[in-house]
């Protein structure tokens, strides 16, 4: 085991990742074979090759191809994830032996080298083709079209390099965005939002009763499937007298985990439907399982509801009604609808459980036994109270009460029997006079038991309406699986910004308005929705573009000395917080003889930004700089530049403008990517070795010595900024007075490779 751990660590896996891999026997065996058989141990395996071997081992379904594919990686024929994906596709579509080596290498781009000059020429050719329309529409032109055509022409080129070249050449042709560009963009976005509101309708419009065809309050009986009894109309009359015809909904989470993006839809649906129809919504904790509930979850749930902009009419708990629920259970036994059963838990699992031999025991006997359960005279699992009914999925006699000798966070040791969801949910809805019990589609199988129980006790019966739950690709939201991610060290906690819990999204910098807008765009649908993360990120960009002030930051600094300025030269430069609306404010940054730019903004030749032959403008500074001397270290790496500067008013207009910092703050920047490699990490057909084998080893990149202008010095936790030309960032709670830490919320533009 120790030798295998060392072997895995030697190819670049972190110790935690290596240990995690060892837990997966199938993946561990394949990866070990790939290394030892084909690469002669870990000798000569750098991290890039190790990452490819790991990715190959976790995705290869036909292990008889392991030797062939490992050889291709070891011989550096397959060098990128793009080539590996093509190789896996080729092998999948060519299952027969022998493999045609020539066809394989052609399909995978083996030996193909794409030079910067080829990328530059290809992008130039594509832009030339669309230049007339580009000049006409300027920054409103669909840049994704340019990116797509350039990638088609350069199949094996690095997509990020192509994107940078497209951005740079577009900037060269159009120049920096003007206020007119930004204003036009805002108007276009407004028109698109209005169009979407007409076509898809706003969230509030979708949630108005008429749009959803819900029943009117008091007219529950008009709903298809609603069960009408001789007492229904009188119960509805009393209900109407109590509510005054007001719509009443509830959001009923279990306090045993943190809310996730799917809950955001439920929150918007329940609170939004009440709000759109002048009703009220309760936040009710379904706290009937003391073994799994913690105070931190109660606090976090309420915090997230309020963060999304909703205020509960009242915060209630299922435990508020424990005595009433017990009294109703006694009544249910007296009416002959429930009985005490002694079948074990394992016997009751599944849909084909054997009939209970205690189903027809005398009512008085069940009453005595239920009282003994309450007094703690049975051991856990020795007795349950079951209801005499069949659920829609065929399950017989669901459990209403079970024994748990665990103190409850609110009632302490008062109770040792606790009601189940199937028993509690509808009765709490009835007690609170809920008009519309809104829940996700998987609860449809419980609708008949919902109606049965209320009617069996002659209580007011609300109407249960189901809607499709919201799912996102490239993530997991199950509490059990998130706990596993935390326990194995893949993520730090429930609020790790790579997760899609609401606390994680808040920490990453997602504005609540963006999440609500996303829920509106997804829409209120009956069918289950699976959505791509980039649609949520698009909503985030729209909000942050209007609300996040601009600052300048350099992630990978290159020192620039302006030699024609005096040693003690210093001036202040005004930077607008929102270039499209300078009336919203600005901040000052120093400009001195020493500045820092991004390393990627300089190249020694063949570049549209700064080169020894080509000057660039400095954003906001009013200067153009030109290279006088390139300073390199002993290994030939560029470590600094000496430049001259002149006023942009007298210099020829440069082809590009770049950002910079001077006398900056040193900060840490955390760049996040998708946590999983596959769209559906929980799908065994897509990820046979399980979701823990699908972790993206590059999902977090930490830059410990980034530089940011001093205007952010007084920022508060979760304050949001746009780092010009870089992305949107939010201040992390780990920040201290000595060092600020920023999380990248989203990039400035959508990455076409992730669509």
TrEMBL record:
GO terms for molecular function: ATP binding; glutamine-tRNA ligase activity. It is an enzyme of class 6 (ligase). Coiled coil: none annotated. It is found in: Cytoplasm, Cytosol. Residues 657-732 form the tRNA synthetases class I (E and Q) anti-codon binding domain. SUPFAM superfamilies: Nucleotidylyl transferase, Ribosomal protein L25-like. Residues 246-545 form the Glutamyl/glutaminyl-tRNA synthetase class Ib catalytic domain. Keywords: Acetylation, Aminoacyl-tRNA synthetase, ATP-binding, Cytoplasm, Ligase, Nucleotide-binding, Phosphoprotein, Protein biosynthesis. Residues 3-159, 162-237 form the Glutaminyl-tRNA synthetase class Ib non-specific RNA-binding domain. Residues 548-644 form the Glutamyl/glutaminyl-tRNA synthetase class Ib anti-codon binding domain. It comes from the Eukaryota. GO terms for biological process: glutaminyl-tRNA aminoacylation. InterPro entries: aa-tRNA-synth_I_CS, Gln-tRNA-synth, Gln-tRNA-synth_Ib_RNA-bd_2, Gln-tRNA-synth_Ib_RNA-bd_N, Gln-tRNA-synth_Ib_RNA-bd_N_1, Gln-tRNA-synth_Ib_RNA-bd_N_2, Gln/Glu-tRNA_Ligase, Glu/Gln-tRNA-synth. Its EC number is 6.1.1.18. It catalyses: tRNA(Gln) + L-glutamine + ATP = L-glutaminyl-tRNA(Gln) + AMP + diphosphate. One of its GO terms (cellular component) is aminoacyl-tRNA synthetase multienzyme complex. Pfam families: tRNA-synt_1c (PF00749), tRNA-synt_1c_C (PF03950), tRNA-synt_1c_C2 (PF20974), tRNA_synt_1c_R1 (PF04558), tRNA_synt_1c_R2 (PF04557). Glutamine--tRNA ligase. Plays a critical role in brain development. Belongs to the class-I aminoacyl-tRNA synthetase family. NCBIfam families: glnS (TIGR00440). PANTHER family: GLUTAMINE--TRNA LIGASE, GLUTAMINE-TRNA LIGASE. Monomer. Part of a multisubunit complex that groups tRNA ligases for Arg (RARS1), Asp (DARS1), Gln (QARS1), Ile (IARS1), Leu (LARS1), Lys (KARS1), Met (MARS1) the bifunctional ligase for Glu and Pro (EPRS1) and the auxiliary subunits AIMP1/p43, AIMP2/p38 and EEF1E1/p18. Interacts with RARS1. Part of a complex composed of RARS1, QARS1 and AIMP1. This is Glutamine--tRNA ligase. It comes from Scophthalmus maximus (Turbot).
